[in-house]
Amino acid sequence: SMSSQKKSPIIGISANLLTIENGPFQGRERAVVGYDYVQAVKLARGVPILLPIMEEEQAIQQQIDLIDGLL
Hints:
Blueprint: E1 10-14, E2 16-19, E3 29-32, H1 35-43, E4 47-51, H2 57-66, E5 69-70
Parallel strand pairs: 1-4, 1-5
Antiparallel strand pairs: 2-3
């Protein structure tokens, strides 16, 4: 049953900030990761979670508390 199976580790992937250079959303910032990182975590039977850049120490600590590992 599902309840007896070991839970997959939650792996945080640090997102980068990307500014859109053209089009209707020009100048807007996006939090992005390379999808190869997401695929690698999935292949390793982990659960990927994207972590946007945070400056507040308490928020960063809460992110860390949520995950089992970090890329």
